[in-house]
Amino acid sequence: GHIKAISERAYRIENLKENMVYQFQVRASNVAGVGLPSLPSDKFKCEEWTIAVPGPPHDLKCSEIRDSSLVLLWKPPVYVGRSEVTGYYADIRKADADEEDWRSVNEKATANKYIKVTGLEHGMNYIFRLRAMNTAGVGKPSDSTEPITAETRPGTKEMIVDVDDDGIISLIFECADAGQDSKFIWSKNYESLIDSSRVSMETKGGKTRMIFNDPGKDDLGIYSCVVTETDGASSSYTIDEAELLRLLEISHDHKFPVVPLKSELAVELLEKGQVRFWLEAERLSGNAKCKFIFNDKEISNDEKYKIKVDQKTGLLEMFMEKLEDIDEGTFTVQLQDGKASNQSSLVLIGDLFKNLQNEAEFQRKEWLRKQGPHFVEYVGWEVTSDCNVLLKCKVANIKKETTIIWYKDDREIMFDDKHDFKDGVCTLLIQQFSKKDAGMYEIVLKDDRGRDSSTLRLLDKEFSEVICEVCRMAAQTATEVKVQSTEHGIRLYSFLNYFLEDLKIIWYHKETKLASTERVKNGVTGEQLWLQINEPTEKDQGTYTLELFDGKTGHKKLVDLSGKAFDEAFAEFQRLKQAAIAERNRARVIGGLPDVVTIQEGKSLNLTCNIWGDPVPSVSWLKNDKELLGDAHLILKFEAGKFATFTITEVGNTDSGKYSILVKNKYGTETGDFTVSVFMPEEEEEKVKVDTKKAAKKK
């Protein structure tokens, strides 16, 4: 036998003699004494065990029994075989099933001496067995457990994790069934924790707490607790890396609580260029303390700094009238509310500070500017639909006494104290905008409250942009290209609202750019863009394109001059050409005859007029619409095809009357009329009055 009692239910007996037969008995002991021995075991002959695989595991126990799961525990085999045990297989079957119904709980061997069995049916009885394996194979199964019912005992509580206000992490397990003699046995990965320095246990009544002394990665594992002297009350809690990290974060928050913030310390500029620093806490108690610190020095509420703290809303504010160079640095707010604290800093240095300072100065100037007449929108430009340039700005805070003056290159170009401010808009219209209008424009508002000005640079690039827009608007006003026949040929034309030299005009025939020649010319007359095709031929048929290039985009207008359109235009050209020839060459009286001739009786009358016509016209003279024939009294001549002479050698009273000259050729006829009035010497002094007005009638 052995001298000392053992707690294990397996014991290796040594110093036996080979081939001897032995029997064994076991006695249990407690504080009251030693009990009666068990019945003797079967007879065992002491022989060397030579099997290669491990013997069966033993001491199978079930713990943490629930409706659908339990944890199966066991002890390793006493005999390990020829090599160390490498794993275990757990088998399960329903208690009332046949031996053939054993099935594996785990497909892969587990190196642990415990396994969690899941997927059990509530209220069903199960039995379990274990098999050990080594490199030689799998050994015989262990003895089966007693039937175990899958059900959660009434009143069972699960183990919970807790982090107290001091950040201490612990596991807590309560058992209402714990009796006076019950003990709470803690284990890690189902091995005893009695000697562990990493945890401490506190047990009071039916509640036990296991405290982690210094939580870390060494504490990862499954923690379980079994209550003795109960019907198997037990529970476990798994702490993996993610759970440990979560608990450590909570612990840190409890050890070092912070005042939660809705927003960190920020800065903004107010209307007058004031600077507002602000921070908002989620909540503050009435005892909360707040400090504003600049460059490690606490700021007090004084002339420079105005500090406001609203503990109800958690809003902290600090105001400064302006930012000076000495204010460059780090601003910090420190909060203390009971154990909780927090702080938030804002670094204003370098460009960040300079930009904020400049913006604050700008805001202050803007506020001052707006106390008097000022611009809401500074002067800009737009091109109207009729291609004028409109300078435009929006003003506010105007009164009757406010003066508005426009300048160009520092010279006043307009003064108007009758501006209409109902819509708050001031305008300056520049018609027919061109290069002469380039320059610096300025508009000044002024009264007793202040002065404001706005400038617009229309030079170089800016001027080009305006010109380009004017050209674009002008190009968009172009009418469709029309066709007009003339005596010289065919003219294509389009009208614009406004033409300026910067608008480039290009004509194309089909896809070919047209150059200006003697026969095909293009040009601009007023607002008309034209292409003149002199003496057109069949080759001039096709599509013509007018392109107006505004500097960025080409605006195109097309006209089809082919087929019927060309034939009609060509026919009209021929007609006009012939009409022009006829007009140029028809017979006509081109000067020399008076309207009225007054002459004294007995005098000689001599009249000469110029004649034109090709071919040379025939010439006839008429008196009172009757043709005259020349004689000694009336001499009629037509010389060199140009000059017609009318002579009365001695005027008599009968020569008074209405006379006409009739010229005629194949292109037309024309007459020239004059009246001869004869008077007696005694009635009026001798004279001849000739009215130089010309008269001509076409027939």
UniProtKB/TrEMBL annotation:
Any Pfam family hit: I-set
Residues annotated as domain Fibronectin type-III: 1-49, 56-155
Domain Ig-like stretches: 141-240, 373-464, 599-677
InterPro entries: FN3_dom, FN3_sf, Ig-like_dom, Ig-like_dom_sf, Ig-like_fold, Ig_I-set, Ig_sub, Ig_sub2
Highest taxon of the lineage: Eukaryota
GO aspect biological process, one term: sarcomere organization
Keywords, alphabetical: Immunoglobulin domain, Repeat
GO cellular component term of the entry, any: M band
CDD domains on file: FN3 (cd00063), Ig (cd00096)
Signal sequence residues: none
Protein name: Myomesin-1-like protein
